[in-house]
Design brief:
33% helix; eight-stranded mixed sheet; alpha/beta; Rossmann fold; single chain
């Protein structure tokens, strides 16, 4: 695998941004092993999202995701989005537009990764789990599968369930609770609209540790989605909001992804 540490200008944000990318290497006939599943000359890609207090470097620093991805011949794109909740902020920048539209375009223009739905996946932890599930529910035509690990699934519960956001920061991102409820940032409402509209959703995966402070949110979201008739692969077991849990479960996510080439 090659590691690319990339800085670029995001037009939707008006900011210089960063992403780390790990990508399989191919054989050029000089003794290097060929690198994994490909579609023509393009690799499948996992957009891997960070949590609230993290950045684009964290998955590589705290897990062995590069080594795990090498087994599947899949590229992994890890962007920085600050404390945005992957949202077009009420008082800030358009991070939803950035991650759902500009980021894939930039990544595909710079690296040999596929832009086809069947080769595109998203996953993330905590705030990033929320972001990945939002990509699946709001941009289902772009992703074949999305996965949430210990996701912050209920943005309306942040005032009483170990909220990671101060009140003023919540308002900068989502506005008031009344504005957030039923909006395109409310995963519960997005699931309802997808079910009512007969939308063809990507495969959905959700996991959470039973000792995680976000466990109750995850149970509510699981039950809500299943009550709507939406298929959801769900796993739980011992674990808290920690990197040991996420290192183990990103391996499960990679094994679960519907990669057309299978494992290398």
């Amino acid at each position: 695998m090659a590691l690319i540490q990339c800085g670029f200008f995001a037009q939707t944000l008006g900011l210089s941004m960063s992403m780390n990318v790990v990508i399989p290497e191919r054989s050029y006939g000089i003794g290097v092993e060929a690198g994994g599943a490909q579609t023509g000359d393009k690799f499948p890609v996992l957009y891997l999202l960070h949590g609230l207090s993290d950045d684009h470097s964290i998955w590589l620093r705290r897990t062995s995701v590069e080594r795990y991805a090498a087994e599947y011949g899949i590229a992994v794109v890890m962007p920085a989005v600050h404390r945005s909740f992957y949202t077009n902020m009420k008082s800030g920048h358009d991070y939803w537009t950035f991650v759902s539209e500009e980021l894939p375009h930039v990544a595909q223009s710079l690296f040999p990764i596929s832009g086809k739905r069947e080769d595109s996946f998203a996953a993330g932890l905590s705030m990033g789990g929320y972001g990945a599930m939002k990509l699946g529910l709001r941009a289902p035509e772009k992703f074949a599968a999305v996965a949430s690990l210990s996701g912050a699934m209920d943005i309306l519960a942040f005032d009483h369930e170990g909220s990671p956001l101060a009140d003023k920061e919540y308002k900068w991102i989502f506005g008031s609770k009344e504005e957030a409820a039923g909006s395109d940032d409310d995963l519960f409402a997005l699931a309802e609209r997808a079910a009512a509209g007969g939308v063809s959703l990507p495969r959905l995966y959700q996991c959470c540790g039973t000792e995680d402070f976000l466990y109750d949110q995850n149970i509510r979201f699981r039950d809500h989605v299943r009550s709507l008739g939406i298929a959801l692969d769900y796993e739980e077991g011992p674990g808290d909001h920690s990197w040991g849990y996420w290192d183990a479960h990103i391996q499960r996510v990679l094994a679960w992804l519907p990669l057309r080439g299978g494992k290398v």
